[in-house]
Amino acid sequence: MKSVIAFTTILGAAVAQEIAPPAGSFVLGAWSPGSGLPGSKINANGGSFWLGKDPSSSCPAVEGLDCTAFPGTRTVLVGGNDTLSLDVAVPGGQQVYVGPNGALGYTPPHSSYMPTGSVTTGFHRFRSQSGGAPVVMNFQGNSFLACPDATNSGVYQIFAHLVVTDGGNCTFFQMRTYTAEGINAWQY
Ligand SMILES: *[C@@H]1O[C@H](CO)[C@@H](O)[C@H](O)[C@H]1NC(C)=O
Ligand SMILES: *[C@@H]1O[C@H](CO)[C@@H](O)[C@H](O)[C@H]1NC(C)=O
């Protein structure tokens, strides 16, 4: 039987003092010293977010559309004041959500589809007054987890919380955001 494990962590909890984050777009990084997580760049790929995968960005072959303006080499986001989106050029945008299984996900291009029970609010980006004043992001007051992908060694999927029987191999990390130029991709 499935049980719901509610993880909370010191990394995400009890932020007494905070100040507004810088304006504009940003990339995501996983900060977890000593955890052995690969690299630090979090990328959007196939509707989910990952460490150890490149972005699954694309640009359609449409007459008059200059795809050199959309290299898609980085995963850039905007928002973090309750809602969160990928910073894209595709009409309609791409919204970030937390799925019913706790996974961080995003809507496909030209679609608002997300699984029933997904949550699109509760993202909170702010500059912490501790640890060198990093600009961090929480979801509903908690930090995020990276869970090893069952089929790809060195690849970790990003979750906001877990609905699993055994989350023992997942690693909590502090989601840090870094100001970045957007738009980098037409779509992810
Ligand atoms: C976040 O949204 C609230 C409500 O719309 C607004 O009052 C606040 O100024 C916003 N904060 C930032 C940092 O943009
Ligand atoms: C956790 O990692 C151990 C050691 O690699 C492995 O034996 C176990 O199956 C993993 N558990 C899950 C739930 O993936």
From TrEMBL:
Organism superkingdom: Eukaryota
InterPro entries in alphabetical order: PhiA_domain (IPR052820)
Keywords annotated in UniProt: Signal
Signal sequence region: 1-16
Protein name, entry field: IgE-binding protein
Organism: Amylocarpus encephaloides
